[in-house]
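User: For a reading group we're discussing how well predicted structures match intuition. Take Endonuclease. Before you show the prediction, I'll give you the sequence so everyone sees exactly what went in.
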Amino acid sequence: MPEGPSIIILKEAVQQFKGKKILKVLGNSKTDIQRMSGEKIIDFKSWGKHFLICFKKFTLRIHLMLFGSYRINEQKTTAPRLSLLFKNGELNFYACSIKFIEGDINEVYDWSSDVMNDKWNAKTTREKLQLMPETLVCDALLNQNIFAGVGNIIKNEVLYRTRLHPENKLKDIPSRKINELIKEARTYSFDFLKWKKEFVLRKHWLVHTKKICPGSNIPVIKKYCGQTRRRTFFCPGCQVLYSKE
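Assistant: Thanks. Here is the predicted 3D structure of Endonuclease, as structure tokens, for the group to look at:
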């Protein structure tokens, strides 16, 4: 599943179509995609893992889910969920979720919860975490209402870099470590973006998919943690579990 930084890359890649009129709409989506035909794209935005195509009176939300993909000015052999054809180019989306959002997009999305948005608010994030003391930190990081854009890779790497065991309850984590967690979630997301653009992201993974911890030289544990049951890699030596209840 693409994480926030990958959606930022998509948003940057399609800027050539901003302000352009859609001449034809194709695709096997059951949504009324034809309403976009003849419409001009006002802007492209992103919120976490959501890619947003903004029109005058509505917005199209695209979520690439687990296996979604896109092509710009080219096509795959498989049928697209959505194709937008312009005078000089096309956008094609595959195996994704499509939904229309009516009205003002700013009334729908809380931009302060997007870790890569200029309006990201660390104070608000901390306040949200304080309201869920029993939640495991591995689940909290994947909560898109708190850390929009953070996915499983970012989760694993942030927990390793902050030396936090994924099964810590938020209430047991020292205040300074919560602050460190919040800061690192944003910092690593921008590192992720930089490395992905340079095609070297995997080279910088310290614990995700690793067998041996680079710090302690002991085996990395792979476990499906928390309510999200997402694949989690962590070092039992480096990452502190503050309570064993």
